[in-house]
Amino acid sequence: MKTISIVVPMYNEAEVLPKMYSELTATINALDYGFEIVLVNDGSRDDTVQEALKLVEKDERVLLVDLSRNFGKEIALTAGLDKASGDAVIPMDADLQDPPTLIPDLVKKWEEGYQVVNAKRISRDADSFMKRTSAAIFYRLFRKLSGKTEIPENVGDFRLLDRQALDSLLSMREHHRFMKGLFAYVGYRQATVEYERPIRAAGETKFNYWKLWNFSLEGITSFSIAPLKVSTYLGVASAAFAFLYGIYIFVRTVLIGEDVPGFPTIVVLVTFLGGVQLFFLGVFGEYMGRMFNEVKNRPLYFVAREYRQTKNDNGDKE
Ligand code: UDP
Ligand code: MG
């Protein structure tokens, strides 16, 4: 029998965890597959670990990976995917916003031979207007800048990957992990299943606008070097403008002979160009900082402890 690993990153999800577990198992118990549930505790400050341990005790399919601190969702998810042993994996949020009831549909597409099955949300009514608009702008910008990597719109981390796609994904060990981009980058035969995204079952979101902004910076800088090129073109354009303007002033002075006014022009130009230069120094800095982090090549995460039921020789659970 083939097995499927469900991977759930959790940060302060004690409140929803029992509900998540019961809804998830209600769905997967009806399926004709072996399952493994990989729970990753991403340095929660509430009782997430205690709640998860209860599940480990009552269900031998549950594995709890307790990270040494909070590493962020992308890394926590990677840790879980590293530990997953199934023939396919399904990453899922803990808050039931990725409805387990969709799992049979994902699996069906997998049976049809697709190696990656994306879950696409058809409406984002659960999100605020601001969040929807900023997401739409981000997707458009990403598509323009990243060239060949197409991230499907309105697809989160919720999807199914078969072993081959997963191994490809996991072979990319970069520290700045924009998972949506990495998922898309691996390619393979992809299919899409649609669903309505419900609102969070309990607890609250861990992503504010500042985090989302940084997240999109991560996405763009991880998949595109176009921002670095902009400064080249801007530089060429302003140099050309300065050259032409210089000729104009020279000719005018020779022909008309008037002395050169234009103090305001100088101030405006100097401050404008100063601003442009600082801006692109910042853009370079973004890339250089990322290079710095990648070059250090530290492990992506540390595991404090793993918990799962073990059976000793007497067949008793430990
Ligand atoms: N999460 C995590 N580490 C973090 C932040 C979030 O593992 O530092 C998990 C969180 O527990 C949840 C998933 O990532 O399972 C998605 O988070 P959330 O629901 O807050 O994001 P949203 O749905 O609001 O975008
Ligand atoms: Mg959520």
Characterise the protein shown here.
Residues 5-169 form the Glycosyltransferase 2-like domain. It is a multi-pass membrane protein. This is Glycosyltransferase. One of its GO terms (molecular function) is glycosyltransferase activity. InterPro entries: Glyco_trans_2-like, Glycosyltransferase_2, Nucleotide-diphossugar_trans. The protein is an alpha/beta fold. It folds into two domains: 3-134 and 151-207 and 300-308, Spore Coat Polysaccharide Biosynthesis Protein SpsA, Chain A, CATH 3.90.550; 226-296. It is built from ten helices and eight strands. The protein has helices at residues 17-28, 48-58, 73-83, 103-111, 129-146, 163-170, 179-186, 209-223, 226-255, 263-296, and strands at residues 3-10, 34-41, 62-67, 88-91, 116-121, 155-162, 190-195, 303-307. Strands 7-5-6-4-1-2-3-8 form an eight-stranded mixed β-sheet, sandwiched between helices. Helix 2 (48-58) links the parallel strand 2 (34-41) and strand 3 (62-67). Helix 5 packs parallel to helix 8 (209-223). It is elongated and about 95 Å long. The chain starts with a strand and ends in an 11-residue tail after the last strand. The mean pLDDT is 86. The structure holds uridine-5'-diphosphate and magnesium ion. Uridine-5'-diphosphate (UDP) binds next to strand 1 and helix 3.
